[in-house]
Amino acid sequence: MSKLPDHTSVASKVTEVTALLLMLALLVLLLSELPSEVFSPASKSFFFAIGAIGAWRYSWWFVQALRSVWYNRRIFPRLRAAADAAGEAGKPSELYVLCTSFRIDADVSYRVYEALVREVRDYGVPTTIFASLADRTDVDIITHVMEDLGWPSNVELRYMFQKGDGKRSAMAEVLRAISRRAPAPDALLVSMDGDILLEPRTLERSLSFFRTNEDLGALTTNNSAIVTGGDATKEWYDLRYAQRHLVMSSGSVSRRLLVLTGRYSAFRLDLATQPSFIELVENDRVDHWRFGNFKFLSGDDKSTWYWLLKHRWRMLYLPDVFVTGFEELPDRRRFFKSTTDLMRRWYGNMLRTSGRAIALGPRPMGMFTWWSLVDQRLSMWTTLIGPTVAILVTLFVRPSFIFAYALWILFTRSISTLILAWQRGRFSLLWIPLIYYNQVFGALLKTYVSFRFNRQKWSRQGISAGEPDDPAAVTRQRRMGHVLHGAFVAVMLYVLVLATGVLQPPDRTAMAILHGPAAEGQAGTGTDNRWLAMTLADGAPSGDVTLPPSRLTLDENLLEIVATTERMRTERLTGAPGDEPTTLEISPALARHVHDADGRVIARDGTATCHTTQGCALELDDRKVALVDLTISVQPGRS
């Protein structure tokens, strides 16, 4: 386990203590309101919500976690030892650095280039830094850095100004400029963003892996963040990096990754200067049956990854080397909107590329990596099954089920947080709700973007792309996206409704109740016969129903309604707990079908108290319903 840089942004202790108190209060509330029967084996809906699908999702997640531990504890230490043993021989003869910046604060740019130039100077290899800039004031900042560091002799600076149409064209221009310099065969390329701070010895501890792994095409490192924003924003970024660490480590067991992060990645230069590599970075496109052919706006790290994956080059993640990003939400005062914009761009890049990567098949990448790509497509739907079923069961079966689901969320996300914290080296209680937010809201965003992934927007650069120039074509595409998205959601809801059985077809009892005035007279106007008949027929799957704290009026017409019922789920009626008991006021005719605790018929003008240990019974033809914790009162004046 590697130690996070000291300047990593984390939530304050006051926030953590507040989160602890709130979660303890929530836990007490959930445990006090949790219905005991919700965990009954007969509860099919509960099992479906958190059983089958939950077992699948969490088993896959634990496989990723176990692979991550195996990589960090067993595989990577051997790779690290070999790379460190290479010493000076592990260094390339030349190094090129591509650093792209766009409207970054002057103080951040100074810190970034100071760390970069210092690293290159200490590394001691002849290095050319290509600074791809959007503003000439950045030249003054970099010049100031070079003056402060004494113009290191092994560092050469080259400036290239961006066109303003995105990062891709800027990268392609630099790569073509590098290829014209005829670099050495063993030269390496570091590609990084202009808001990434290199920690000490980053180059020394990362680039030697290329010498000891001849089939290694690229590598990337661990991340930390210096965040401008509130505590929730700080922990949101660090949680994402903790999740990234787990997935990257797991993928490295197979020597494949799911992305080569644009923040900091290193490549063999002879690969990065191939014409097909440069063309893909600059003009990556997708040809879609509905959207046609459109160009990618962002996601250059997905393009470089796909090129290496397609050409069967291996990739590696270095968990003990950190680079630190200066992170800030597009609008720091609006957490929800800003995180939505960021996730929409990230998920769009993923969806635009994963389809063609899956089409390559398992052979160029291995079965595990291929299935991980497939799982990205499946998980955005399976993640939504749990909350959807919880809502359905809460609305149509048992309102208190929502407490059981909330307890399940609190338990499972706490376990996930502990595992992430163990590997990350730090823990935050804010991760528990943020994990659920990332998973569920992220899944909603993925499903939304999957039907509209041609729509692209880069908030920092204020540019968008992907849709046709014709307004009518744009309208058609958007409407079709809404229709397809709605159809998929409707199918999912339909399947879940049938699978959980929360909406049963109407039986004869329900139809009789809906027949109108004639049925009303037969059922007994002014009684609770109808309600109790429905409760007996469609009660809780556990067979036990708790009655409300009130007086329920019943007569012999209850028997006629129940006689038309094909099924009767309820086996036990329990009175309401507390100071307000449940009382059944019944007619003498119905009293003949009620027996007290000793098995005797209740007298025509009598009462009976049904205790937990000595309950009463209501006989309905050949069926019997237990009556517990309630009072029965026979009303002689009722017919």
Overview of the molecule:
The protein has 639 residues and is of the alpha/beta class. It has 21 helices and 21 strands. The strands form 5 sheets. It has an 8-stranded mixed β-sheet. The protein has a 5-stranded mixed β-sheet with strand order 13-15-20-19-17. A hairpin with a 3-residue loop joins strand 8 (285-288) and strand 9 (292-295). Helix 12 packs across helix 13. The longest helix is centred in the first third of the chain and has 42 residues, at 44-85. Residues 40-45 and 506-524 have low confidence and may be disordered. The chain crosses the membrane at residues 46-70, 428-449, 483-503.
How would you sum up this structure in a few lines?
Keywords: Cell membrane, Glycosyltransferase, Membrane, Transferase, Transmembrane, Transmembrane helix. It is built from 21 helices and 21 strands.
Record the strand order, biggest sheet.
3-2-1-4-7-6-10-5
Tally of helical segments: 21
Which band does the percent of strand residues land in? 15-25%
Q: How far from one another are the termini?
A: 79 Å
- Approximately how much helix is present in the residues? 40-55%
Radius of gyration: 33 Å
Question: How many β-strands, per DSSP?
Answer: 21
Largest sheet: 8 strands, mixed
What global shape is seen? elongated
Q: Label the structural class.
A: alpha/beta
* Low-confidence blocks of residues: 40-45, 506-524
Question: Averaging pLDDT over every residue, what do you get?
Answer: 86
For this structure, the quaternary state is single chain
Keywords: Cell membrane, Glycosyltransferase, Membrane, Transferase, Transmembrane, Transmembrane helix
Transmembrane segments: 46-70, 428-449, 483-503
Pfam family, one: Glyco_tranf_2_3
Protein name: Alginate biosynthesis protein Alg8
